[in-house]
Amino acid sequence: MEQVLQHVAQTVEKQLDSELEKLDAMDSNDLEAIRRQRIEEMKKRAKLKQEWLANGHGEYTEIDGEKEFFGVCNKSENVVCHFYRSDTPRCRIVDMHLQALAKKHVETRFIKLDVERAPFLTSRLKIRVLPTIGLVKDKKTKDFIVGFTDLGNCDDFTTEVLEWRIARADVIEYSGDLLVPPAEARRQRALTVHSKMTIRDKQDSDSDLDFSD
User: Which pairing describes strands 60-62 and 109-114: parallel, antiparallel, or unpaired?
Assistant: First the structure.
């Protein structure tokens, strides 16, 4: 395991060195082109954000029924829909987390729908366990989070775990590691950093050796 971590640390260090070399090789024209491109990207992003907010993004809202559900999916590329029932305590836990994520991920529409108001849709999507979170992209249901099984199978899961699970369906923007949950990813990063420090300490120690007579 230590050898694997050392190899990973060395690979990351080489990649960083390579990126730094590329930056050093750039002239003022290259940097100006990158700056202009970045400004254009920021303008496009700002325009998109205005469109998203106009369509109800940035808030976690309840919709009336099936007709509104299809209307939301037609307007928004990415939709997270919580299928709930008011007498189910675990649905209130989901509400708390989705309220926070809606504010963070304005690129996605976050909604909730009472299953009693949508019998046709509930049957069509084969929703039998509550809470169920439907993850929709480009008007197609990509995935479902059924109950809390994927969230640690406990009621006190964190918002970041739910965020990670939603991101695995590619319906929110996510910069973390999709292969492992956030806590495990942090542990792996910590081990990598520790391995890099150990390697450097060893290198410094070796350089201090005096082989003179």
Answer: parallel
**10-residue block means of pLDDT along the chain (213 residues)?**
56 72 72 82 89 96 97 97 97 98 97 97 96 98 97 96 98 94 86 62 56 51
CA distance 68 to 64: 6
Alpha helix ranges (H) inside the chain = 2-25, 28-54, 66-75, 89-104, 119-124, 159-167, 182-207
Per-position DSSP letters for 70-118, written without gaps between them: HHHHHH-SEEEEEEE-TT-HHHHHHHHHHHHHHHH-TTSEEEEEEGGG-
Spatial distance between the Cα atoms of 186 and 183, rounded to a whole number of angstroms: 5
Q: How is residue 88 written in tokens? A: 């189910």
**Distance from C-alpha of 164 to C-alpha of 117, rounded to nearest angstrom:** 29
Burial (0-12, 13-18, 19+ Cβ within 10 Å), 111: buried
3-state secondary structure of 63: coil
Q: What is the dihedral of CA 82, 87, 91, 93, to 10 degrees?
A: 150
How crowded is the C-beta side of 143, counted as CA atoms within 13 Å? 13
CA dist 212 and 168 (Å) reads: 58
Amino acid at residue number 144: F
Alpha carbons 100 and 107: distance in angstroms, whole number: 14
